[in-house]
Automatic annotation (TrEMBL):
This is ATPase P. Coiled coil: none annotated. It holds the Pfam family E1-E2_ATPase. InterPro entries: ATPase_P-typ_cyto_dom_N (IPR023299), ATPase_P-typ_P_site (IPR018303), ATPase_P-typ_TM_dom_sf (IPR023298), ATPase_P-typ_transduc_dom_A_sf (IPR008250), ATPase_P-type_domA (IPR059000), Cation_Transport_ATPase_IB (IPR051014), HAD-like_sf (IPR036412), HAD_sf (IPR023214). Residues 119-217 form the P-type ATPase A domain. It comes from Streptosporangium pseudovulgare. It is a multi-pass membrane protein. The chain crosses the membrane at residues 12-31, 38-57, 69-100, 234-253, 259-279, 560-581.
Length: 768
């Protein structure tokens, strides 16, 4: 039998026997059978004495002072002075305390236990064209699997065909299903909430994301928390104090009953039960937020942190670069540049290639099928596209040095990466890519400062100009760029020498730094296995704000643990004083101690309940609005680049082409963008005012709406002036100003809304 289950059954039997004996004795007493009632209560006392003595011996074997010794002395004393009712009440108290403790810890660990209880044991692997049920351990990278509706994804992989609708609530705590298209990576542990789909495994089940979460859940125990160890030390000091008080009361009064009464009310159950229950409740609460904490010690250190160190790529930024601009070389067309690059990069697995292919798809470009594609790691990819030899990657020997110098300068100013495209040996253009700051990053850092973080440091191996641009936006205290893994470890150790330090990262090169920190936090949703294993905390959702949620829970759990233990001990000390003075007989003291036990356990379990902490409360209706407008943003962002491209190229092709491009921009602005902004003004902003404390909080956003509408009207007037005759030369400068202004205001406005509003939503973000 499982040892934990056996202990639970023994506790249940002890509780049943002691309660039955107490009730039976009470019935006999009321019937006038006083002697028989005393005999039953004495038997209950003896029954309770045996396991209590065993608990003391077990504690001594483990090198700890058995604080249950007070209960043993109280039971023995009750038998000695013939206070059998008090002895029976103590027996019920001990059994009830044990049952309450087991229930509290079992309930608190329920969310963690659910993680590994639902781990997949089998998979449906295609063999000879047919899916066959096989043990999950035999799945290997490259295997094609079928995931039926309602079943759990058995291993990390990519959607082989069609699309998959996945319920990731067990991993992330987010209730909304997420749709993944063909070629998109998915994680094990998610449940198929749609039709059956095929999955190409990229890892074994043992190396997959969910297996790492399961390992962490098995390692999670409340007993290692410093506050729990402090409670043990405090309770050990309480034993001699209790014996001294009981002995003094007996000596001064000459009545051994007073000593027994002191022992009865002195049993330190409040201290022993409250701290583990509150810490275990906190571990359960963080699991519901999509955060797995490796033990109560890590949870408490997280709540005590004063310094936050963060890796940049994949932590503060999305880790998925996007195309921010396509600049054609003289004589080339930007559309052709992106089309050719996407055609060649379709065959590459590089993260920048994925971004280029995604950008072409978003702009409605269908790349032709290339041939002879060759990928050279560290250099780029080349292939034959529509009769042209296209190379995508690093720049070759410059044939337009001045143009290339200008593009490099622009990339440095924008903090962008460059991918150069050549056709038949001549430069065709350059594609600029940026890794955007996470929408929830700035709000998360503000929340963590509110929660007690005093210093924020950003580490990155990236170029200083790129790192500084991110640091300025987020307001970090120090930026360390160009860092090697060894440099990161040294930086983290310097910070841990000053204060309790949390390090957050997601890559293989972050693992040593995570291990060096007081609390290592891994972005486990897309992070490496090495970083997940080195970390003390894993964010199973790809959202940095869950770290702030976990810190809120950690601080609250520790506060409740200390509060419950201190209040319980204070009440016990007052009861001891009353018992020593002869004001509280043993039976009444036992009842009072039982009430104290129940009170502190119930208080400790408050840590299970949700609390908003530093996160503003968002109701379901408002969260639905946030998701709706967030999805709108994801569809509106790509066309924003059309505005800048139109401004860049205005005047290069005078006549109908310029006019046609401007009309296309105007149709997008009036047909899609302005209706979105007006809907936000009338639906989203009033809801945000209620969440954030009044309509004033949305005034700056409303002012941006007004400016956007003014610039769109200005563009419309220019088109009216142009008529069918085309643009006049004197219009070009003002049109460029209008377009550049629109592009800048829209980008800033979108970023502000995503940071200030959309980051408040708890639900899943749809993958781009």
């Amino acid at each position: 039998m499982n040892p934990g289950r056996a202990a639970h059954r023994a506790t249940a039997v002890l509780l049943a026997v002691t309660v039955a004996g107490l009730v039976c004795g009470g019935a006999l007493y009321l019937a006038g059978e006083v002697t028989a009632a005393g005999a039953v209560w004495a038997a209950v006392t003896v029954v309770a004495l045996a396991p209590a003595a065993w608990w003391v011996v077990s504690a001594l074997r483990g090198g700890r002072v058995g604080v249950d010794a007070i209960a043993v002395l109280a039971l023995g004393g009750a038998l000695a002075v013939r206070e059998y009712l008090a002895g029976a009440l103590i027996g019920v108290m001990l059994a009830t305390g044990r049952a309450l403790e087991e229930h509290a810890l079992r309930r608190a660990r329920r969310d963690l236990t659910a993680l590994y209880e639902r781990a997949p044991r089998s998979a449906r692997r295609y063999e000879d064209g047919e899916p066959r049920l096989v043990p999950v351990d035999v799945v290997r990278p490259g295997d094609l699997l079928m995931v039926p509706a309602g079943e759990t994804v058995p291993a990390d992989g990519v959607v082989a065909a069609g699309s998959a609708l996945l319920d990731e609530s067990a991993l992330t705590g987010e209730s909304l299903p997420v749709e993944y298209g063909a070629g998109r990576p998915v994680r094990s542990g998610a449940v198929n909430a749609g039709a059956a789909f095929d999955l190409r495994a990229t890892r074994t089940a043992a190396d997959s994301a969910y297996a790492g979460v399961v390992r962490l859940a098995r390692e999670t125990e409340a007993a290692s928390a410093p506050v729990v160890r402090l409670a043990d030390r405090f309770a050990a000091w309480f034993l001699p104090v209790t014996l001294l008080a009981a002995g003094t009361a007996w000596w001064l009064s000459g009545d051994p009953v007073r000593a027994v009464a002191v022992l009865v009310v002195a049993t330190p159950c409040p201290l022993l039960l409250a701290a583990p229950a509150a810490i275990a409740s906190g571990l359960s609460r963080t699991a519901r937020h999509g955060v797995v904490v490796k033990g109560g010690g890590a949870l408490e250190r997280l709540g005590q942190a004063r310094t936050l160190v963060l890796d940049k790529t994949g932590t503060l930024t999305s880790g998925r670069p996007h195309v921010s601009g396509v600049v054609a070389a003289p004589g080339a067309d930007p559309g052709d540049v992106l089309c050719w690059a996407a055609a060649v990069d379709r065959m590459s697995s590089h993260v920048l290639a994925e971004a280029i292919v995604r950008a072409a798809r978003e702009r409605g470009i269908s790349p032709p099928q290339p041939s002879g594609v060759v990928e050279r790691p560290g250099t780029g990819t080349e292939g034959l596209v529509e009769g042209h030899r296209v190379e995508v990657g690093k720049a070759t020997a410059p044939s337009h040095p001045e143009w290339e110098r200008v593009q490099r300068a622009r990339a440095a100013l924008d903090g962008a990466m460059t991918v150069w495209v050549t056709a038949d040996g001549d430069p065709a253009g350059v594609i600029l890519l940026r890794d955007t700051v996470r929408p929830d990053a700035a709000r998360t850092l503000r929340r963590m400062r509110d929660a007690g973080i005093e210093r924020v440091v950003m580490l990155t191996g990236d170029r200083p100009e790129v790192a500084e641009s991110v640091g300025v936006v987020l307001g970090v205290d120090r930026v360390l760029a160009g860092q090697t893994p060894a440099d990161k470890v040294a930086a983290v150790r310097r910070e841990t020498g000053r204060a309790v330090t949390v390090m957050v990262g997601d890559g293989v090169n972050d693992a040593p730094a995570l291990a060096a920190a007081d609390v290592g936090v891994a972005m486990g949703a897309r992070g490496s296995a090495a970083s997940t294993q080195a970390a003390d905390v894993v964010l199973t959702a790809d959202r940095l704000d869950r770290l702030a949620d976990a810190m809120d829970v950690a601080r609250r759990s520790r506060r409740i643990a200390v509060q419950s233990a201190a209040a319980g001990m204070a009440m016990s000390l007052l009861a001891m004083a009353a018992a020593a003075a002869g004001m509280l007989p043993p039976a009444a003291g036992a009842l009072l101690q039982e009430a104290i036990d129940i009170a502190v356990i119930v208080n400790a379990l408050r840590a299970l309940r949700p609390a908003h902490g530093t996160r503003p409360a968002v109701d379901a209706a408002t969260e639905s609005l946030l998701h709706r407008f967030e999805l709108d943003h994801s569809s509106l962002r790509p066309p924003l680049e059309l505005i800048r491209r139109t401004a860049d190229e205005l005047g290069e092709r005078p006549g109908p082409e310029d006019l046609g491009r401007l009309r296309e921009v105007h149709r997008f602005l009036t047909g899609r963008l302005l209706p979105h902004e007006r809907a936000e003004e009338h639906a989203l902003y009033p809801a945000m005012g209620q969440v954030l404390g009044g309509p004033e909080v949305t005034m700056t956003m409303s002012r941006a709406h007004a400016e956007i509408e003014r610039l769109v009207r200005r563009l419309g007037r220019h088109l009216d002036l142009a008529g069918d005759a085309g643009l006049r030369p004197e219009q070009l400068d003002d049109l460029r100003s209008c377009l550049y202004g629109l592009h800048a205001v829209l980008l800033l406005h979108f970023d502000q809304e995503e940071e200030a509003y959309f980051s408040l939503a708890l639900g899943a973000r749809s993958p781009a």
